[in-house]
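2024-03-11 09:14:02 DEBUG pipeline.ingest accepted 1 chain
2024-03-11 09:14:02 DEBUG pipeline.ingest length=417
2024-03-11 09:14:03 DEBUG pipeline.predict start
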Amino acid sequence: MEPACRFRILAVVSLLGLAAGISRAHALESFPEFGTLEETEPDRFERPQGSEYQSDVLTYMKPEAWEYEWLTHPVAADFTVGSISPVNFLTGNRLKARGNLFNALEFRFTYFEERDQERDSAHHIPEFVFWPTARVGVSVFFEPSYYKRQDDLGLALLFRPNDRHELRVFNTWVDVTRAKRNDRGDTFDPGALPYARGIVGRAWDEEGGFTEYAVRQETRTRWRFPDQKLEYGYSKLFASLFARRKADGFFWSVRAQADRKLEARAPDGAGSAVTPEAWTNTRAFVIARAQIPGFGPHRDWEITPGAEIALLSWRTTGGDANTTDVLPHAWLKIPSFVSGRNSGYWNPGYEMTVHRPYGSEGVNPSDRSRLEHRFNLAYGVAFAESAELRLLGTADLDCAGSCTIWQGGDMQFRMSF
């Protein structure tokens, strides 16, 4: 592809991603290597979201085959935007571009946005990677911001055991210039500056399979706000695994994530009206699926059964809460047309939520045990192998005949070069 043509296409994809990003992505992180303390964290502590939230997140997940397309192309983008409440969208957008400046110097650009009821963040990260050998590289990455107090700076060692496996060991200095270039009065305690460090690895094969694994520590931080007479404390541990493999004619996949976040607000100085508050949030998600072809009248249908379990716990000064969500689900993919290199398909699906809260007094006293059912219907169009558009509508089966059955909708798009 000619460079001028590629840059024009990349500009269009960038605008699509940014257009979808004006709304509120998934509880599952796309880039563990770039996760850090956000400036919005002190303003809102995460709380239980009720029985439908995990169902929304699961329903609006991008197809797992899209992850393989993302990993195996130097230029790629995908996004999703789905309604999760009368006033909120859930969005998950990402864009990457990679190319060699010289034989041993590679430039990478990554943009991603993750906005949901648990996280509200958007990042654009330039990165330079020097490869002294074919298997070992040194990366310098940074995130510039209009407000220089939000600038991040990172270093990483990259290892390539082979041409389809990259391992990153990283350390990020968070808000590295906040103490010196700050238009507000807040600052980090010099003895508790925020860092994010960890390991992320990604590997893929030639059959559509891949593995991503990650561990990240965000160090204990003390953040002082003298104007508000407030001190905020924060730390976080994170681990994840995402794997998809082909076996005996079908694909199986597992996606798991666990994290624990500690955050606290307390008075910092005499006369403060701040009420001390401390939260420890622990979350664990596991999603298992099988993608099995060979059904239907012409043996060209595909069924994807799966199940998710989500375990969430909040320990707070105002009370404790625990929730368990079990979400069995299934999707059916039915071809609708083939025209040249383009094709379409219908994608009906069913999902059930078994929601069980425990000890929610003081945190979310209105939460109750529930059994809920959802019907989904998507239509997708694949443009050759380089792009795909998927539109989805979802209905609340528990409301049939008694309330508004329409649950929401979602739009997803991907493109790669």
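2024-03-11 09:14:41 DEBUG pipeline.report Helices lie at 3-20, 53-59, 65-71.
2024-03-11 09:14:41 DEBUG pipeline.predict end
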